[in-house]
Amino acid sequence: MACNERLANGAEGYVGLPNVPYSQCEEWCKAGTALGITDLDVCSIAWNNPVPWRKIAGDFGEGAIMDEWAGYVLVLGFGVFFSIVTTIMVKLEQIYGGLVISSEHFNTAGRNIKTGLTAAVIVSQWTWAATLLQSSNVASKYGLSGPFWYAAGATVQILLFGILAIEIKKKAPNMHTFLEMIDVRWGKLAHLTFLFFAICTNLIVTGMLLQGGAAVVNAASGMHIIAANFLIPVGVILYTWFGGLKATFLASYIHTSVIMICLVVFITYVYAVPGDIECTSATTKQCNALGSAALLWERLRFLNYLPAKTDQGIPVNSTYTMPFPDGAYVPTADDPGPGNFEKLTYTEEDYHHGPVNGNRGGSYLTMLSEDGLSFGVVNIVGNFGTVFVDQSYWQSAIAARPSSAHRGYLLGGLVWFTIPMSLATALGLSSLALNVKMPADEAADGLAPPAAAIVLLGQGGGIMIIIMLFMAITSTGSAECIAVASLFAYDIYRKYINPECTGAQLLKVSRLVVVGYGIVCGLFGYFLYGVGVGLGWVYNFMGTMIGSAVIPVSCCLCTRYMTKNGAIAGAWGGMILALVSWMSVAASRCTNGDDPDDLAEGVDCDTGKLNVDTLGNINAQTAGSVVALCVSGVIAFLVASIEYKMGTEQPFEWEKMREGIKRVEQEADDVPEYEMTFEYLDPAAKYVFKYGVGYSVFLIFIWPLAVIAWGVFDKANYTLWASIAYCWGYIGSLVIVVLPVYESWGSLKNVLTCTKPAPEAKE
Q1: 279: number of CA atoms within 13 Å, CB side?
Q2: CA–CA separation, 588 vs 608, rounded Å?
Q3: How far apart are CA 674 and CA 686, in angstroms?
Q4: Which of 247, 326, 476, 602, CA to CA, is 20 to 30 A from 14?
Q5: How far apart are alpha carbons 216 and 446 in whole angstroms?
Q6: For the purposes of burial, counting CB atoms within 10 Å of the CB of 533, is it exposed (0-12), middle (13-18) or buried (19 or more)?
Q7: Three-class SS of residue 335?
Q8: Residues 475 and 257: beta-carbon distance below 8 Å
Q9: What is the CB-side half-sphere exposure of residue 762 using CA atoms within 13 A?
Q10: How far is residue 84's CA from residue 238's CA, in Å, rounded to a whole number?
Q11: CB of 341 within 8 A of CB of 119?
């Protein structure tokens, strides 16, 4: 074992870290041998002194990575930069591609988006701040089951939504919003009901974007969270105002490409880039690198062996050796900074030692995690709401050409899977394996990825995380702005205020709503900050709030037999019972949010109170989410069955929906006529059903069941697991970056050669 080199010359010749004495190294070395650790020098890490990632980044006062002014420049600069780039791209397409921005095009992008760009847009829209941050948070809480359940539990909705994407082309080819089809089928009361759920969905998604973004910007630069909540949407408003949905799609491709490139860099550093001499030889400098799945496994294995810290067992004012990476802050004579030796005070919250409650063997390296499984249930149920009730996903399906809709959603789902799976398996687990100083509240705010990135790559790693985060926030934020603009334009203004409106009036309303919603976003983010709920809290709550609308909305397009009263009763009844279940379970939790069953024997806690902690308990939110999704379906079908039994309802005729939704501007779509025929769409529907359901069953049932027998993963099993995530990341990145360019090469060639295509050649 590597640590034996340090001990070979006895206590007098011992070469070790300043805060790892010979006796401690000897104890750890024996333990490592017993645990089967062969590659890692356990004495090259000061386990009792977690790595202060903010100090490694340079610690710029309130911000870990940069000065406060730099944070403002970054937030506003990124927004303005992408606004200019996207606006130029849209303008070039107007000149060389014949694009005309009408109200129809502003909200539907011409209904002819191809497979690659559709997939890239889906990846971009579904990559929230939570995708990058919350996925790593659950990795640090539950181990490797967290990233898997985040990825699998939020991929199936995209795969299954592909079924609805084809049904739109068959049954409602002229629709602009999913509420239009609800209005045609079920009338005003149902329309208003699901308008409420749609707006709630958009607010929840946007709130999570701003929470995650503001928390990271605050940690990186010290910018006040309230200021970040209002300034982050500025850039989104600019390019969305000008180009509408097409500008959102073009920006989404750029954002997706940047995110995937950064992802490849991070997983390469974790699994393929070894450390310097301090990681391979006995030196007095700590090793803050990984370089292989085997080393990551050994670090996590040893971390679980170490005893859990209590306030009585923590070194006070311990000395931490500061290994400043290349590019990080370096002390000078004029600005000595913290120096190479910094006195730090640790608390119990800074440590992640010891077994994990509810995990098999107390290990991070297992899929058998009770809380991980509970999170998986919440994730699956909650994300059905944020896809099936979010107008932005319907809008992407509307914008896709019929030949691309089903393939785009399947490809987008499979590529998106790699972002939380590969990134969180790498950075989330690395934040544990690198022994990063990470209190639970910082992890809950989504700071595990920047912390791990900074320890691995220095200040540059943190900046890369911020770039990825801004790509996620701006692309999804733009999609949400367009979604809300469409809802207000078509389902409020056209429906209730001015039914005879022109396309120009709708375009004006859409643009005004984009600006107004940007302001509302800032106010809502401020509200969430004021009440003290974090990113993880809101993420887990979304299923309780909007999950009851999923089955009724899906039935509107998938079955002739759902009735108006059934849909309305299911949505409202499911939500009310979900809220009751959520609060009932929360009241039985400890006042600090812990589960009474997890307490040591003989230890009691106060219960019976509702506060942010108890309402954020994972079991309470699981109960609310499951009740919302399942009970709403039971109520909806029960009411519908009673109405059919009484003879008061008749099966719906789909032709009424095809004829009932009218366009304002009767412009032809640039789509071959045969793609809109049932002869073409019926096989596509069978294809997406077969593979959408098949992939979903594989991810949710077959894959996790197949690895149950592995129990606590040994080194070989974990290496296989990490290799799958690593390869999936590279392949997904290559496909999603190259395919849209390949498919649109004709238009790109026109732009690059300044050639205006003939009308009949326009793509």
Answers
A1: 17
A2: 6
A3: 17
A4: 326
A5: 7
A6: middle
A7: coil
A8: no
A9: 17
A10: 9
A11: no
Candidate ranges 47-56, 326-335, 700-709, 746-755; pick with highest mean pLDDT? 700-709
∠ CA 129-133-137, nearest 5°, is 150
Q: What is the pLDDT of residue 705?
A: 94
Which of the pair, 236 or 341, is modelled with greater confidence?
A: 236
- Is residue 63 classed as helix, strand or coil in its secondary structure? strand
Q: What is the pLDDT of residues 596-638, one digit of tens each?
A: 876 766 677 888 888 888 998 888 998 999 999 999 999 999 9
Residue 302 backbone phi and psi in degrees, to 5: -70, -35
Greater model confidence, 243 or 415 = 415
Quote the CA–CA distance of 348 and 325 in Å, as a whole number.
Answer: 27
Residue 319, H or E segment: strand 318-321
Residue with tokens 């009691």: 604
Q: What pLDDT score does 396 carry?
A: 81
Torsion angles phi and psi, residue 318, rounded to 5: -70, 155
* Region 637-658 average pLDDT: 90
SS3 at position 145: helix
In angstroms, the CA 415 to CA 412 distance is 5
Structure tokens at 279: 């990681």
Comparing C-alpha atoms, which of 223, 196, 154 is closest to residue 413?
A: 154
Q: Using CA atoms, how far apart are residues 198 and 165, in angstroms rounded to an integer?
A: 18
Give the 3-state secondary structure of residue 744. Answer: coil
Please state, in angstroms and rounded to a whole number, the distance separating the CA atoms of residues 126 and 158. 9
How confident is residue 680, by pLDDT bands cut at 50, 70 and 90? Answer: confident
Structure-block tokens of residue 521: 């976003």
